[in-house]
Amino acid sequence: MSLKLSTRQVDGITVLDLSGRITLGDGSVKLRDATRDLLSKGSKLILLNLGDVNYIDSSGIGELVSAYTTVRNQGGELKLLNLTKKVHDLLQITKLYTVFDVKDDEASAIASFAKT
Amino acid sequence: MAESQASRVSMTLDSSLDSVDRVEQAAEQLAKAAGIQEDDIYRITMAVREAAVNAVLHGNAYDPSKHIHASLENTGTSLVIRIADEGKGVDLEKLPDPLAPENLLRGSGRGIFLIRSFMDEVHFRHLHPGTEMTLIKHLDTK
User: Which CA distances in Å does B77 have to B25, B40, B43, B121, B138?
Assistant: First the structure.
Protein backbone atom coordinates (compact mmCIF):
# COMPACT_ATOMS: atom_id res chain seq x y z
CA MET A 1 0.00 0.00 0.00
CA SER A 2 1.57 3.28 -1.10
CA LEU A 3 1.71 6.33 1.14
CA LYS A 4 -1.21 8.76 1.09
CA LEU A 5 -0.95 12.25 2.52
CA SER A 6 -3.39 15.03 3.25
CA THR A 7 -2.96 18.28 5.10
CA ARG A 8 -5.27 20.33 7.28
CA GLN A 9 -4.87 23.40 9.45
CA VAL A 10 -5.75 23.33 13.14
CA ASP A 11 -5.18 26.47 15.20
CA GLY A 12 -2.21 27.56 13.10
CA ILE A 13 -0.63 24.11 13.06
CA THR A 14 -0.32 22.08 9.87
CA VAL A 15 -1.44 18.52 10.49
CA LEU A 16 -0.12 16.09 7.91
CA ASP A 17 -2.23 12.93 7.96
CA LEU A 18 -0.32 9.95 6.57
CA SER A 19 -1.57 6.48 5.76
CA GLY A 20 0.15 3.45 4.28
CA ARG A 21 3.86 2.64 4.17
CA ILE A 22 6.86 4.93 4.42
CA THR A 23 9.52 2.94 2.63
CA LEU A 24 12.38 3.47 0.22
CA GLY A 25 11.08 5.00 -3.00
CA ASP A 26 7.54 6.26 -3.26
CA GLY A 27 6.74 6.69 0.44
CA SER A 28 9.98 8.41 1.42
CA VAL A 29 9.87 10.71 -1.60
CA LYS A 30 6.27 11.74 -0.92
CA LEU A 31 7.07 12.58 2.69
CA ARG A 32 10.17 14.57 1.66
CA ASP A 33 8.26 16.50 -1.00
CA ALA A 34 5.38 17.24 1.35
CA THR A 35 7.70 18.57 4.05
CA ARG A 36 9.57 20.76 1.58
CA ASP A 37 6.30 22.02 0.13
CA LEU A 38 5.00 23.00 3.56
CA LEU A 39 8.22 24.79 4.46
CA SER A 40 8.25 26.65 1.16
CA LYS A 41 4.77 27.92 1.97
CA GLY A 42 5.91 29.12 5.37
CA SER A 43 4.30 26.32 7.38
CA LYS A 44 6.91 25.54 10.00
CA LEU A 45 4.76 24.06 12.75
CA ILE A 46 4.00 20.54 11.59
CA LEU A 47 2.28 17.63 13.27
CA LEU A 48 2.77 14.31 11.50
CA ASN A 49 -0.20 12.06 12.20
CA LEU A 50 1.13 8.51 11.79
CA GLY A 51 -1.98 6.76 13.11
CA ASP A 52 -2.60 4.97 9.82
CA VAL A 53 1.03 4.26 8.99
CA ASN A 54 1.44 0.54 9.42
CA TYR A 55 4.98 0.11 8.17
CA ILE A 56 8.18 2.16 8.12
CA ASP A 57 11.53 0.82 6.94
CA SER A 58 15.00 2.24 7.63
CA SER A 59 14.65 4.63 4.71
CA GLY A 60 11.35 5.88 6.12
CA ILE A 61 12.93 6.34 9.54
CA GLY A 62 15.71 8.31 7.87
CA GLU A 63 13.14 10.46 6.10
CA LEU A 64 11.38 11.21 9.39
CA VAL A 65 14.72 12.24 10.90
CA SER A 66 15.53 14.39 7.87
CA ALA A 67 12.13 16.06 8.04
CA TYR A 68 12.65 16.72 11.74
CA THR A 69 16.10 18.28 11.29
CA THR A 70 15.07 20.26 8.19
CA VAL A 71 12.10 21.82 9.98
CA ARG A 72 14.18 22.53 13.10
CA ASN A 73 16.93 24.11 11.05
CA GLN A 74 14.38 26.52 9.62
CA GLY A 75 13.20 27.52 13.07
CA GLY A 76 10.12 25.33 13.09
CA GLU A 77 8.84 22.38 15.05
CA LEU A 78 7.86 18.91 13.89
CA LYS A 79 6.09 16.48 16.19
CA LEU A 80 4.71 12.98 15.78
CA LEU A 81 1.17 11.92 16.63
CA ASN A 82 -0.57 8.56 17.12
CA LEU A 83 2.24 6.06 16.63
CA THR A 84 1.17 2.48 16.00
CA LYS A 85 2.81 -0.12 18.22
CA LYS A 86 5.12 -1.22 15.41
CA VAL A 87 6.31 2.30 14.68
CA HIS A 88 6.63 3.03 18.39
CA ASP A 89 8.80 -0.06 18.85
CA LEU A 90 10.91 0.89 15.85
CA LEU A 91 11.62 4.33 17.30
CA GLN A 92 12.47 2.75 20.65
CA ILE A 93 14.92 0.30 19.08
CA THR A 94 16.64 3.07 17.13
CA LYS A 95 16.70 5.38 20.19
CA LEU A 96 14.74 8.00 18.28
CA TYR A 97 11.74 7.92 20.59
CA THR A 98 13.46 10.41 22.86
CA VAL A 99 14.58 12.59 19.95
CA PHE A 100 11.11 13.14 18.54
CA ASP A 101 8.37 14.86 20.47
CA VAL A 102 5.75 12.11 20.36
CA LYS A 103 2.10 12.77 21.22
CA ASP A 104 -0.92 10.52 21.44
CA ASP A 105 -3.67 13.13 21.64
CA GLU A 106 -4.20 15.63 18.85
CA ALA A 107 -5.68 18.44 20.94
CA SER A 108 -2.83 18.43 23.45
CA ALA A 109 -0.33 18.03 20.62
CA ILE A 110 -1.70 21.13 18.91
CA ALA A 111 -1.62 23.05 22.19
CA SER A 112 2.01 22.05 22.83
CA PHE A 113 3.44 23.97 19.86
CA ALA A 114 5.17 27.25 20.63
CA LYS A 115 3.02 29.65 18.61
CA THR A 116 4.13 33.20 17.96
CA MET B 1 12.58 -16.37 -12.38
CA ALA B 2 11.78 -18.50 -9.36
CA GLU B 3 11.92 -22.18 -8.58
CA SER B 4 10.05 -23.54 -5.63
CA GLN B 5 10.52 -26.81 -3.76
CA ALA B 6 8.76 -27.93 -0.60
CA SER B 7 10.32 -25.34 1.67
CA ARG B 8 12.89 -23.54 -0.40
CA VAL B 9 12.55 -20.75 -2.93
CA SER B 10 15.35 -19.30 -5.05
CA MET B 11 15.13 -16.14 -7.09
CA THR B 12 17.37 -14.16 -9.39
CA LEU B 13 16.03 -10.66 -9.80
CA ASP B 14 16.80 -7.28 -11.33
CA SER B 15 18.32 -4.53 -9.24
CA SER B 16 15.04 -2.73 -8.66
CA LEU B 17 12.60 -1.83 -5.93
CA ASP B 18 10.10 -4.27 -7.46
CA SER B 19 12.61 -7.00 -6.65
CA VAL B 20 12.78 -5.79 -3.06
CA ASP B 21 9.00 -6.14 -2.82
CA ARG B 22 9.12 -9.65 -4.29
CA VAL B 23 11.75 -10.84 -1.84
CA GLU B 24 9.81 -9.28 1.02
CA GLN B 25 6.62 -11.05 -0.07
CA ALA B 26 8.45 -14.38 -0.37
CA ALA B 27 9.80 -13.94 3.17
CA GLU B 28 6.32 -13.19 4.47
CA GLN B 29 4.94 -16.33 2.82
CA LEU B 30 7.78 -18.45 4.22
CA ALA B 31 7.28 -17.09 7.74
CA LYS B 32 3.51 -17.52 7.61
CA ALA B 33 3.84 -21.09 6.34
CA ALA B 34 6.18 -21.81 9.26
CA GLY B 35 3.44 -20.80 11.70
CA ILE B 36 5.34 -17.86 13.11
CA GLN B 37 3.51 -15.26 15.21
CA GLU B 38 2.46 -12.04 13.49
CA ASP B 39 4.91 -9.77 15.35
CA ASP B 40 7.82 -12.00 14.38
CA ILE B 41 6.58 -12.22 10.78
CA TYR B 42 6.74 -8.43 10.68
CA ARG B 43 10.29 -8.40 12.07
CA ILE B 44 11.50 -11.11 9.70
CA THR B 45 9.98 -9.50 6.62
CA MET B 46 11.40 -6.13 7.58
CA ALA B 47 14.87 -7.62 8.06
CA VAL B 48 14.67 -9.38 4.71
CA ARG B 49 13.41 -6.20 3.04
CA GLU B 50 16.34 -4.26 4.50
CA ALA B 51 18.78 -6.90 3.25
CA ALA B 52 17.24 -6.76 -0.23
CA VAL B 53 17.36 -2.96 -0.23
CA ASN B 54 20.98 -3.16 0.78
CA ALA B 55 21.75 -5.48 -2.13
CA VAL B 56 19.88 -3.39 -4.71
CA LEU B 57 20.84 0.06 -3.47
CA HIS B 58 24.28 -0.24 -1.89
CA GLY B 59 25.51 -3.45 -3.51
CA ASN B 60 24.41 -3.20 -7.12
CA ALA B 61 23.62 0.54 -7.04
CA TYR B 62 20.55 -0.10 -9.26
CA ASP B 63 22.89 -1.29 -12.05
CA PRO B 64 20.56 -2.94 -14.61
CA SER B 65 23.33 -5.33 -15.69
CA LYS B 66 23.60 -6.75 -12.17
CA HIS B 67 21.22 -9.03 -10.31
CA ILE B 68 20.38 -9.97 -6.78
CA HIS B 69 20.10 -13.60 -5.79
CA ALA B 70 17.80 -14.65 -2.98
CA SER B 71 17.10 -18.02 -1.42
CA LEU B 72 14.60 -18.56 1.36
CA GLU B 73 14.46 -21.87 3.17
CA ASN B 74 12.69 -23.49 6.08
CA THR B 75 15.15 -26.11 7.33
CA GLY B 76 12.70 -27.43 9.90
CA THR B 77 14.55 -25.75 12.75
CA SER B 78 15.24 -22.34 11.24
CA LEU B 79 14.32 -19.94 8.50
CA VAL B 80 17.46 -19.27 6.48
CA ILE B 81 17.40 -16.39 4.00
CA ARG B 82 20.38 -15.63 1.81
CA ILE B 83 20.58 -12.48 -0.29
CA ALA B 84 23.55 -11.76 -2.53
CA ASP B 85 24.46 -8.87 -4.79
CA GLU B 86 27.06 -8.47 -7.54
CA GLY B 87 28.46 -5.16 -6.35
CA LYS B 88 31.94 -4.07 -5.40
CA GLY B 89 31.47 -5.27 -1.85
CA VAL B 90 31.46 -3.26 1.32
CA ASP B 91 32.67 -4.09 4.78
CA LEU B 92 29.31 -4.26 6.48
CA GLU B 93 30.95 -5.10 9.79
CA LYS B 94 32.51 -1.65 9.97
CA LEU B 95 29.42 0.48 9.56
CA PRO B 96 29.01 3.32 12.07
CA ASP B 97 26.85 2.63 15.12
CA PRO B 98 23.45 4.28 14.43
CA LEU B 99 22.78 4.47 18.17
CA ALA B 100 25.85 6.61 18.88
CA PRO B 101 24.76 10.14 19.86
CA GLU B 102 26.63 11.68 16.94
CA ASN B 103 24.80 9.39 14.49
CA LEU B 104 21.25 9.55 15.89
CA LEU B 105 20.15 12.32 13.54
CA ARG B 106 21.68 10.82 10.42
CA GLY B 107 19.23 10.24 7.61
CA SER B 108 20.57 6.76 6.82
CA GLY B 109 22.63 3.88 8.20
CA ARG B 110 20.03 1.93 10.18
CA GLY B 111 19.32 -0.98 7.83
CA ILE B 112 21.96 -3.44 9.01
CA PHE B 113 21.26 -2.49 12.61
CA LEU B 114 17.58 -3.37 12.18
CA ILE B 115 18.45 -6.66 10.50
CA ARG B 116 20.67 -7.61 13.44
CA SER B 117 17.97 -6.53 15.89
CA PHE B 118 15.25 -8.64 14.29
CA MET B 119 17.09 -11.85 13.37
CA ASP B 120 18.80 -14.46 15.57
CA GLU B 121 21.91 -14.71 13.40
CA VAL B 122 23.32 -12.53 10.62
CA HIS B 123 26.37 -13.51 8.61
CA PHE B 124 28.24 -11.81 5.79
CA ARG B 125 30.32 -13.45 3.11
CA HIS B 126 32.41 -11.74 0.48
CA LEU B 127 31.82 -12.99 -3.03
CA HIS B 128 33.84 -12.19 -6.11
CA PRO B 129 32.20 -9.88 -6.86
CA GLY B 130 29.54 -9.00 -4.36
CA THR B 131 28.40 -9.68 -0.84
CA GLU B 132 26.10 -12.36 0.54
CA MET B 133 24.10 -11.81 3.66
CA THR B 134 22.58 -14.76 5.53
CA LEU B 135 19.71 -14.11 7.90
CA ILE B 136 18.62 -16.84 10.31
CA LYS B 137 15.56 -17.03 12.54
CA HIS B 138 15.36 -20.07 14.77
CA LEU B 139 11.99 -21.74 14.95
CA ASP B 140 10.39 -22.64 18.24
CA THR B 141 10.33 -26.41 17.78
CA LYS B 142 9.50 -27.36 21.38
Answer: 21, 15, 18, 13, 6
pLDDT digits (tens, 9 = 90+) for B51-90: 999 999 999 999 999 999 999 999 999 999 999 999 987 7
CA distance to partner chain A, nearest, from residue B78 (Å) = 24
Most A-contacting residue of B38, B53, B58, B112 (CB-CB within 10 A), to test interface: B53
| pTM, 2 dp | 0.91
Contact in structure between A48 and A17 (CB atoms under 8 Å): no
Nearest C-alpha neighbor of B130 from the set B80, B82, B77: B82
For B106-119, the pLDDT digits (tens) are: 999 999 999 999 99
CA distance A91 to A98: 8
Asked if B99 and A68 come within 8 Å (Cβ–Cβ), the reply is: no
Contact A58 B53 (CB under 8 A): yes
ipTM of the complex: 0.89
